[in-house]
Each structure stands twice: as C-alpha cells, then as structure tokens.
Description:
The structure is a homodimer of 221-residue chains.
Chain A (H helix, E strand, L loop, with lengths): L3 E3 L2 H21 L2 E6 L6 H11 L6 E7 L4 H7 L5 E5 L8 H10 L7 E5 L16 E7 L6 H4 L1 H6 E7 L13 H11 L4 E4 L8 H15 L1
Parallel strand pairs in A: 2-5, 2-6, 3-4, 3-5, 6-7, 7-8
Helix pairs in contact in A: 1-4
Amino acid sequence: MSKKIQLGTKILSANEEYAQQNSRLLRDKGKHCLNMISSPGSGKTTILTRTITDLKGKIRIGVIEGDIQTQLDADRIRATKAPVVQINTKGSCHLSAAQVNSALLQIPLDSIDLVIIENVGNLVCPSAFELGEDGKVVVLSVAEGDDKPAKYPAIFSKSKALLINKIDLLPSGAIDFDIDKVKADSRRLNKDIKIFCVSAKTAEGMNGWYDWLIKTVRKSS
Amino acid sequence: MSKKIQLGTKILSANEEYAQQNSRLLRDKGKHCLNMISSPGSGKTTILTRTITDLKGKIRIGVIEGDIQTQLDADRIRATKAPVVQINTKGSCHLSAAQVNSALLQIPLDSIDLVIIENVGNLVCPSAFELGEDGKVVVLSVAEGDDKPAKYPAIFSKSKALLINKIDLLPSGAIDFDIDKVKADSRRLNKDIKIFCVSAKTAEGMNGWYDWLIKTVRKSS
C-alpha cells in the first residue's frame, strides 16, 4: 500500500508559517535576529564567542546553536555566559523555522537585544530556509578559496553581511586567496552586501563588524 | 487545489534504482568508482588534479564534477587532459544517481580505469545519496578544525578513506588542529577507515594515497 501526502506548497508553507511566527514574536519583543551561515569550520562559533565577549555592556546577545550532533558549540558559547539553546538536527542539513520557534520559546528573550542563530555548517541548504530572521550573515574562511561566491551564489546573494574570516592565515603566503576578487564577485551578486575582513582569532578587523552590528541592532529596536 | 504525489519509498528508490544501474554498468566494464565528499574549499579539485598528473601511466582517471554553478572545477580537471563531465545541480546540495548515470554515459569509460565523482561541496547531504560508487572518500582540510568527525559523523562512518588535507598549513602554528584526535574520532566511527595526511599543494604525503588508490583499483579490475 502506498501512502499519499500533500507535497510542495504545503511543506514549504509549514516552514514559512513558523518563520512568520518567529518574525512576529521577535518584532513584538523588539529583538533583532541574524541567521549565520557558512561551510563547516569557517569559524562561526569563534566569531560568536569573541563578539559576545567584546560587546559585553553594549549588546546582549543570545545564541541558537544548530548542529547535526554534539553540544560542542553550545558549550563554547555557554563559557561566555551568554544564553544559548542547542538544537541537534540529527542528520538534517539545515535548521527549520519550527526548530527555531521552540528555541525562541526557551531563550530568555527579555534579557537580550540580539538573537544570533548559528546554522548547521553547510553553504548550500540553510540559504533556502527562512527562519524568521531579520537578515543573514555569511562567513567565508580564506582557507576555503576565493571561488566560493561564484560557486555558491545563493547565500552570497541573500546575505546582509559577509565576514571573510581567518585573514591571519594570509601573511604567511601559504594560502592563495584574492580578497578583491571575493569582494567584487559578492557585490556583483548583491550590491548592498557589507563586507568585513576579520580574524576572529586575533581580533583583527572585528571592530568594523561590531560597529555594523551595533548600528543594525539599534535601528531595529 | 492541492496536488498529491507518492512520497517516501518511491522517491528514495528512484535514486537507489539509478545507483544500482550505475553500479552494474561500472562492474560490467570492470571500472572502479569513488565518490569524493567534503565541505566547500577542502581541496578536492586540487587533490584530483595532482593525483591525475602524478598517476599518469599507472591509472587512467576520469572525473565527474558536481557543482551547483560554474564550470570552474571541470576546467581545472580538463587542463590535466583527463576526461571530465561537469554536472551543474542548479541549487541542489548533492549529486543524484540519475545525474551520475547520464554523466557515465558521456564519459569514455573504455579508456579509463577509475571514475572519481567530485560531489558538491557539502559535508552533510551527499553522504545520504548512493551514486553506485564502490566507495566514498572524505576530505577534511586542517583549516576546518579537528571537531568535524564528532560533528558530522555520517560521512566519516561511511567512507573507505579520509584525506586530511592542507597539512602544509600546520608548521606555521597559526592553526590549532590535533591530527591524532581526528584519527581517533574517525576510527571510533569507522574502524577500517584508511587515513592519509596530505598536502595536495606541496605533494607531501600523497604517495600513501596513491599506493592505496592503485591497490584498490587493481583489486577491483
């Protein structure tokens, strides 16, 4: 016997409905929300831990951590004392708006200004699922190569900001990465994208990102 | 009006059926096939171009290139004179067995010994779709961090070989990456996995990978 279920619009709209619910909840509370997306190992968690620490007293950040398995990233965020909710997708390649919805109900929204969702490490699938966020932030490590905007255009087209991370690896000359090419290719896809060249490890360039973050959060509250 | 289609088993088995067709075709021709999977920017294409060049006269390699967009990787393979077929998935996060089937019909199978499928840059989704290959090879760059087997266990569990790439970046001390931890975590998931620490850029460690590749291809022909 074959089972029949309704496909297409129904499945898509379930995610959309939750995304709209999340967006309403965040707007009602006057909270800003960013959805951070990158390949595995681009440095999202390191960017977040440094950002939370350096912006203490300026912006109160809460984190929703998306991972297929483990609590490793949530543990790193927890060490900064920021509120964090871990979602384990158990194999799924992206966060869904429904998962984010239940995380938003657990995170102490009244005591934070900004929710950052760290999506599953994947440069492809998460870009297709709206979570109710105000904007997406894409992270690209210089070790991944400068052809990524051309090869993975969706996420670069849809993001408000691009963080080019691990620039501390460039001076050794061991990595071929043309920052100007990445900037030009990203702006060809998305003329308004804000681009910050940073090292979350050494803190180089992080101030530009912090200024943008503070301005963006204040504008929305 | 809502549309109804049959889901679940039907959709899964369409991929399975093509995978079985691919497997039969390869077996009938006596050709070995590997499915190479990694995050974006781990160095799959650089590994392939060096492998093809260094193994000239020993193994004749053909490549099926999976990318969301662009012919960039196929152009790099083509420069080695190896036969290559590019598949652009136009947004899809993994290759399907049906796409590989049509590529296998285009590639000159009779004049090669080994087909390497370079999957879409994604450490998650491609691991769930069998393509009819004899084995999977996972690539992890040291720049991605040593927590990846724990966080993305599926592909490490299913692969015959792991290439830890970009080891030329380690001596500078700019990257924290514990090779022994990655080896131990990978072997906990998959006791038989072969692990090679390589730099496709400098050629360091590539001979171990070549020896394994030659042995594996000869065994199957």
